[in-house]
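hey team, just a heads up i'm posting the complex here instead of the shared drive bc the drive is being weird again. everything in one block, sequence lines first with there labels, then the predicted structure for the whole assembly after. its two chains so it's a bit long, scroll down
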Amino acid sequence: MNFVYLFFFITLNFSSPFSQQDKSASPPNPQSIEAGKSNFRVNCSYCHGIDANGGFRAPSLVSGHFSHGSSDESILNNILHGIPGTAMPANDIDEPTAREIIAYLRSLQKSSQPSSNGNLESGRKLFFGPAACSQCHMIQGQGGRFGPDLSRVGAMRPREYLVESIRDPDAQLTERFVAIDFGTNPPTYELVTVTTGQGIVLSGVVLNEDTFSLQFMDDREKIHSWLKSELKSVVHEHRSPMPKYDTHQLSAAQLDDLIAYLTSLRGDSK
Amino acid sequence: MTRRRSSPFLYLLNLLFILYLVSVPAKLAAQVTSDQLLNSSAMPANWLQYSATYDGHRFSSLSQINRENVSQLTAQWVFQTATPGFFENTPLVVDGIMYVTGPENLAFALDARTGRRLWSYKRALPEKIRACCGHTNRGFAILGSRLFMATLDAHVVALDAATGNVLWDVQAADYAQGYAFTVAPLIIKDKVIVGVSGGEYGIRGFIDAYDASTGKLAWRFYTIPAPGEPGSDSWPSADSAARGGAPAWVTGTYDPQLNLLYWPTGNPAPSDDGTRRKGENLYSNSVVALNPDTGKLQWYFQFTPFDLHDWDATEVPVLLDAEIEGKPRQLLLHANRNGFFYVLDRTNGKFLFAKPYATQNWAKAIDSSGKPIVLPSALPTEAGVHVCPGAAGATNWMSPTYSPQTGFLYISVREQCDIFYAHPQQFVTGRIYIGSTYMPAAKEKDWGAVRAIDPKTGEVRWEYKEFSATWAGNLSTAGHLVFTGDVDGYLIALDADTGKLLWHIQTGAAIYAAPITYQLNGRQYIAISSGTTLLTFALPATTP
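-- predicted structure starts here --
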C-alpha cells in the first residue's frame, strides 16, 4: 500500500439519547453481520475504532442512537454521501456493502450496555460544582481549557469508556484530533514535565512536540513554548494530569449521575 | 498604394535587434539525450531523473554548500500550488527550468532562479478516482524536449517541455477498476518505463514500456504470472492471481553495462488476509530484473513471500560495486519495508546477506537463501496482533541515498508498530480490497531516524533521531552533507560522516518528498517540497 492508512472512512454521529430508534431498522442477519464486520474494519475502523467504540476522529457507534438519523436509510445515506459539516466523507462503496455495515452496527447495539440509571440534573450540578470537572473541561463554552472539551463526549465514547476515564484516567489517554498524519500515533492529553536551563520545573499537557520544540498548556491555561535546546530535561509522564476519582471522591451513585449527564452530551445546544 | 522605403535609421534598428537576438542567451526548450541520462552524474547542475542517476544514488557532486557553511542557508523562493493535497515529488531541473508534478494531476514548469511559473498542466480527474493513498505524483521523466508523466487515472502523457502541450496520451489501464499511476517514469534508451499502483484494489500489477516518440506500448511485464507461466503455481487459483495486486509504484534503477532494469513490486492483495491466496504470491514484494528492450524477466528476488502485513518492496533498489569479503561484487542494496537490509548480487539475484536495520518482531531470521523464518506470533488474527514494523514499514518509498565520499547508504527509518487484524473480505471489482485493517499500537510513540548503513556489512554506523516516524527521502552531496526532512515539517542538514545536526528550518507542513540540488548562475540550490509548497535554499549571494 502506498500509504499506511486509507482516508475515506466513515463517521456516524449520535443523536440525543432520548430519541427513539427508527422503526424501519432492519433485523440483522448473520451473513450480513459477518460481511459487515469485515467491511467495517476495512472502511470505517480507522476513525471509529476497531470495534466501533469510537476513535480519535469519530464517534462510537454502539448505542443505536445516531444524531443524523437512526433509520437504516439515514445511515445508508450518510455512509454513501457523507455528512456535511462533519469529518464524515462520502464513501466509495456500493449500497449492499453499506447495508452490511449497518447490519453489523445493529448487532453491536443489541449487545451494548444499558445507559446509566443516574440523574442527569444531579450529574450536571456535580460537573459544575463539587466534582470540579468544569475547572478543566468545557461544555458548550462553559468551563476550563486544560482538559478535553466534552460537549460531544456522549456521542464520541461509550459509557464504559467514560467510567474508566473518571475512575482511572491513566488507563487510556485521550487522543487529540489531528487532521491528516499518516502512520503516526495521534498525540494525547499527556502530562509532560520540563526543567528549564535555570532549573525551574514546569508541567502541563502537550499541545505540540517535535524534534526541536515543545509547546504545552499548564493547569492555569498558560501556554508555554520552549526549544528543547533551552531545556535541561523533558519527561513524558505517560499519565493524564486528571486526578483519579475513586469512591471517596465520587460515590457509585454520584458516578451514575455524572455518567447520565455526560452520556447526554451530544453537541446539542440546550 | 505606395510602399514606403525603409529609412537608414530603421535598417540600423533592425540590425541592432538581430544582433541583440544572437548575443543574448535565450532559454531554449530542454534537450536531454539518452547519453546524458547515462552520464547524469557528470551534469550536477541539472537534476535529470528521479534518483539523480540510474544507480539510484541520489548523490550530487556539488559542494558549494558544505558542512562548514550550510548553517548560512537562506530561503530563495517559494512556490505554492494553491490546491489541496500534497507533494511527494522529485522535481527535474534542466538548464535553469524546474519541472514539477503535483497533486491532482497537476504539473508546472518553473524558472529555477525565481520560482515563477512558465506553464501549468492539469489533466482533469474523473469524479471517482480510486488512487488508494492520496492524489499524488512522484515526478516527471525527460527525454529530448519531452516530459513524461503517469497520471492518477492510469494514462501516460508526453508533454512539450517548452509549453506543457500534450504530445501524446495513452491509456494504460482502467482507473475504474482501481488502476492508477503515482510513479515517476524512468527513461531507458528510447522507452518510457512506468509501474502501476492499485494493490489495495485487487488489480493485476504490471510494468509498461512506451515508445518515447509515439506512445506506442513496447512491452508489458505483468508482476503476477498468467496461468501456466513460471511462478503461477505460487497462487492457489487463477482468480486469486488475477486480483493479486503486486503493484509497481516506485521508480526502478538501471545497470547499462548489464542492460538490466531493476523494478520493485508491492503487496499481494488483499494485503492483510491470506486465506484466499495461500502460496508465495509471486512476484509480489520482490525486485524483478528485466531486459529493458523486451520486458523479459531475467531474475527475481522476493523479500516477503505470502505477505500479511502490507510490506511492499517498493523501495528504490540501489546499485553499487563493492568488495564483499574481499571479492569485487556488483551489488543491489535494498532497505526493505519489512525491517531488513538486503544485499543481492545484481547480475543474477543471488542473496548475499540480510540484516535488520530497525525494530522487528516478525521474523526469527532470514535464512541462507534469503527467505524469512516467520514467527507465528506475527500472523494477523481477528483479535489483532502487535507487529513491528507496522504496515507503513521500517522504511517506505522515501528515497535512500548513497555517498561515495563516505561509503554509507542513508535511509529513512520508521520506528512504529501496528496491531494487525485479519478478517476475510469479499472481492468487488474496483473497490478497496485489503482484508481487515491495522491500527497504530496504543501507548507507543512512533519515532523516526536517518540511519547510515555500511552496505558491505549492513551495520548501522550512525543514527540521527527524529521525534516522529518520517516520510521524507534523502539527498547526499559532495559537501559532506545529507539532507532530509521530517513529518513535523523540518528540512534538516546532517554531517554525512557523523550524523551531527548542522542546520534545520521549519517548512510549515509534513515533508513527503526528497530534497534535490542544482546549480544555476554559479549558485547551488537545495529544493524541497513540503505540503503543497516547494521551497529553495542557497547561500547568501555574494556582493559584486
